[in-house]
Write a structure and sequence with these properties.
The structure holds 3 protein chains of 3 kinds. By secondary structure, chain A is α+β, with helices and mostly antiparallel strands. Helices cover 24% and strands 35% of the residues of chain A. Chain A is built from 5 helices and 11 strands, in the order E-E-E-H-E-E-E-H-H-E-E-H-E-E-E-H. In chain A, a hairpin with a 2-residue loop joins strand 5 and strand 6 (79-85). Chain B is of the alpha+beta class. In chain B, strand 22 and strand 23 form a beta hairpin. Chain C is of the alpha+beta class. Chain C has 2 helices and 6 strands, in the order βββαβββα. The radius of gyration of chain C is 14 Å and the shape is globular. Chain C starts with a strand and ends in a 5-residue tail after the last helix. Classes of the chains: A alpha+beta, B alpha+beta, C alpha+beta. Chains A and B meet through strand 7 and helix 5 of A and strand 8, strand 15, strand 31, strand 39 and helix 20 of B.
Chain lengths: 186, 982, 95
Amino acid sequence: MHDLAPLTALAGTTPVQDSIGPVTITEAPDWALASVAARLGQEKACSTALASVLGADIPGVAAHTQGPAMSAFWTGPHIWIVEAPYDSHEDLAAMLSAKLGECASVTEQSDAWVRFDVTGDGIERLFERLCNLDLAKLGQGAARRSVIEHLGCYVIRGTEGIHVYGPRSSAQSLHHALTSAARAVF
Amino acid sequence: MSRLPTGGQIDRTRKISFRFDGQYYKGHPGDTLASALLANGVRLMGRSFKYHRPRGVLTAGSEEPNALVELRTGGRQEPNTRATTVELFDGLQAHSQNAWPSLKFDALAINDRLSNFLTAGFYYKTFMWPAAFWEKLYEPIIRRAAGLGSITTKPDPDLYDKGFLHCDLLVIGAGPAGLAAALTAGRAGARVIVADEDFRMGGRLNAETFTLGAQSGADWTAQVVAELASLPNVRLLSRTTIFGAFDHGVYGAVERVSDHLLTPAPDKPRQILWRIYSKRALLCAGALERPIAFANNDRPGIMTASALRAYVNRWAASPAETVAVFTNNDDGHRTASDLLAAGVKVAAVIDTREDAPALQGAEVLAGAQVTDTAGRLGLKSVTVRLANGKSRKLDVGALGVAGGWNPNVALTCHQRGRPVWNNAIAAFVPGAELPQGMAVAGAAQGHFSTHAALHGGADSARRILADIGISAAAPDLPQAEDAPVNITPFWHVGGTKRAWLDFQNDVTVKDVKLAHQENFRSVEHLKRYTTLGMATDQGKTSNMGGLAVMAELTGKSIEATGTTIFRPPYTPVSMGALAGRSTGRDFKPTRLTPSHKWATEQGAVFVEVGMWLRAQWFPRAGEKTWRESVDREVLATRASVGVCDVTTLGKIDVQGRDAAAFLNRIYCNGFAKLAVGRVRYGLMLREDGIAMDDGTAARLAEDHFVVTTTTANAVPVYRHMEFARQCLWPDMDVQLISTTEAWAQFAVAGPNARKLLQKIVDPEFDISNDAFPFMACGEITVCGGLRARLFRISFSGELAYEIAVPTRYGDALIRRLMQAGEEFDVTPYGTEALGVMRIEKGHAAGNELNGQTTARDLGMGRMVSDKKDSIGAVLSRREGLNQPDGLRLVGFKPKNPKARVLAGAHLLEIGADMTAANDLGYVTSACYSPCLKSFIAIGFLKAGDERMGDVLRAASPLTGDDTEVEIVSAHFIDPEGERLRA
Amino acid sequence: MIINHPLLGPCDAQEFTYKGDARLIDRPDGMADGADAAFYNYAYLRDNPAGQHRELWFHEQGDRSWLVVTRNTVTHEITQVELARDVARKSGRSA
């Protein structure tokens, strides 16, 4: 086991959490991520294999699905990002690569993103200040890419709120956008 | 006169204190600044743009051209605010503008006496010559003299926000038509947004005395608004102006969240800029009353009849004890009767129509016209020419002018829709071509009665919703007045004195006549020549009159004369709202490198590189200039080992069976045969043969590459590769994803680089020169098992590696490298030292890959393979890019090592004049080389490869630099590449 | 403008990056005879119609699909939106 200590995207040793009015914005560093792209001509095989790894249907266009240990969301035609707890799946990309074999291209994405979990009443009112997605139509299980404060982000409607993935290097800017918008609304 | 004893939608139980031009006044909640001033007997509110004429309010709404004030003070000072729309708040401070030393005595009112010289086209004619005088002399003087308010130079302390809304139906305007539409759609369950610029919804219902069923207009409004507010599918946005109708149902809106407060609540925005996505929109923006032009029709106290009536009905404020009305239609009579009912004396109704109806309680002067007015700072009397030709003077303090109503068509024009003339109501109505998804109802459509507005709104809503699959029931609408339009168009009273058309830009009937005389007769020419309608109000009250006068002069009908159109914004939008949250440091997002925290602790100086903040150099105690730090970093790296964060380079993961074949087409040089575990430098061309970007591609597996791009081009290169993948070769098996952010990457360079890395790379990985030679790459582990990637590549020209670990460990890795490197005096270096070393080595970077240079220019012509098809290869071979005297990348050394050479300097023969014809090339990158103890540079020189040893001038007319330089190889350091292979 | 993405439905044009004429898909073969002239036409000769135009748009802030958008450059009316990859295949492009 190596002896290097990780930092969160906001450069802390513990995740940052802000409670503003009814909403809570929490930095969520504990997720391993890997992109899975189907190889040409292997789209069906990849979907089947990925579904079996997930233990759930693969997500359709702009959707997110939850399996027993892992979840995944659609990011483009025949490409998904798989999520799993970091502690148990730090080697997620290698594991997926081994299981999916020749039918998919897998790329580690764990540290490409910063994730914020946003929960609480009235988050629709918060997100209408942040991105152009129609939250009323973004039901649970929806996953859309959108622009928040000039940053390309994934906005995922989970069971307990909204998960935002933004570019990790801009974590501070994204955090500023989320919190300042929340203070403006609530 | 002042506040009427009863009536008005103001809260008389509370008093609000405010100041205008330093004077304290009192008003009530519900007042606007204009209504409160009128209630305090203040009619004079500003000076006009050009002639500095005393002016008061012309209207009671956002179309106001006259009563522009500077609102608030300090950083919040806001010029050109319409007093008619400013909601009164406690502590409000306003100042008149364009007047000096005071509003009542304005020195530049002399312009009014010079009006004969200041007619249309005056500036164009007078200030033509000499041309050089324009910028330095004429324009500053004119700007000072002719003007509106002044802006503050202090930063705006308030926050602004932006947001996005979605709806089935956007209702623009909450008058009777808008409210009926919203009620219809809201009850049907449609997602509705109702936006109204006023702080009180209801539109004209707030300003009229007629009833809806048994209720007053205000009561009916309150009831409907309450129901709408209770519906979860309806969003009411008062104080919100829809300022633009954009493509495909997108509307721009500004919500003035805190403008009615002294200061916004903490963290709350002053305004919100909304981008509204609508399936359909219904424009219910009502109509605007137009004035009639007559001599001296701009005195304070002269206003539209509907404004006069609004001030009395809605705000219980009468500008004078005795008033008169000048009208060409029945609606003017309504003003007179409302004022009479409120206890205001009406001296007469001057009706241009011979057959004017009678009116109870006031004399009607049928077939009469107002020929002149008097009163320097406020109206004292009007002179009327009676039907029998005799003249009569009426002593009045206010005159309501009713020239007819113009449907408020502004938003229908934003996609170049042209209004059409409707003779029955003598006005332009929306044309057939409306912005996509827009319909128009009520007075905006030319249906002026309340009955027509209510039913038009409801019917339109039902029709629109049916269109998008929502069925709505007709609501029960109250009985309301249904008076027909009775108008005999009348535009201006003849005479020789000035009669104003455009109050804000001081355009008179005379100016239109002059434009006609000088053949500027089309409406578009008329507009530009006279500036009619070009002020901040876009001529809402003036365009119609101007083109009617032109129609008269040309003998054409108004229909044939046509009209100009409106463009966004409907009313001015503050820059703050457009900027939103993105101001100051947050103007754009910042990208931080994985070592940012550590670098900050080291006291690094940072530089913006695109959105990235990178360490530029790491100053040490005692170093006085940046050069000392940079020179030290370069020398230390070349002597032992240095470390630099290079995470910012773009990294693209390329996988698939055809990955190698794909890169073979993307890069001009070959990649098909690159062995696994090896890296190759690659040059990408644009299809026109010009160099686009360069970087490396590392082959991690048969079907897996990691491609790097320059920091600046990471996004465009990815886009380009996706274009090639999806559009050019859709059946190649290749998958792309950016991994720039995922890996923290550090360059470790210098003779001791390997020794340092051997201390952290896990022992099972052999990185000796034999096992891991120059241009090797591999997946390894470090520090006891952390997955990492190692690339033996060198930008500095030294023995060098780039090592990458997952970003979250980047901070720990840089600290470990520093710790492990202590025995080698490891030195962190920043982008300046990086730049110096790459210039010393003669590596091209962004300055050389500048969008104008080819592989051949860069000295890499032979890299472009003709054995394969790659992007840009064919056109890179064309004649024009392959001239013998073409540019070549070379190095420059000043004859005097202490003489600086500047990037951007141009190259000339010694003794040649500094002219474009003598230009031989230019310097692209320059620095001081601490290794060579001399300034050095690289750049492009015509036939440069044949001029080694020649001496030229590197001169910059911009800076005055003029240095003799010797042409040398661009590779100043280790040209044989022995160090990087060591 | 709103572009009706074939997969994602209506999307704001702000999410896209514009490239230009969809004929850029028809890249000539660089190894074929007459490639010089073909590439000259390809790189430089394009129509710029006032009216209906087939254009390439990249959903950069979305799903990274290249789209062929048929748009009236005068009215901005969009009559057809296709995945560029499908268009390329239909026009005979492969690997």
